[in-house]
Amino acid sequence: MAWKKNYSTVRNASWIWYLLAAFCFIQAVTSVHENGGQFGPAFFIWVAGCAGLCFSAGRAKRKAAAKVGA
Q1: How many helices and strands, by DSSP H and E, does the chain display?
Q2: Residue 49: enclosing H or E segment and its boundaries?
Q3: Cα–Cα distance for residue pair 4/27, rounded to 1 Å
Q4: Mean pLDDT estimate for the chain
């Protein structure tokens, strides 16, 4: 079935981005704890990294979907 191949190609294109975004989110939460409960610059850097990776995942999905013609 062609749709199964197309779906797996699109799905496989983005899982790494979500994994890296989850790592950045965990780092953001731990940076608040390490800073005595205050939001320091490290928190905002990790949150920006997390947001950027989530947007990259969407871009990777769109690119893979366009490639397979879905």
Answers
A1: 3, 0
A2: helix 41-68
A3: 35
A4: 82
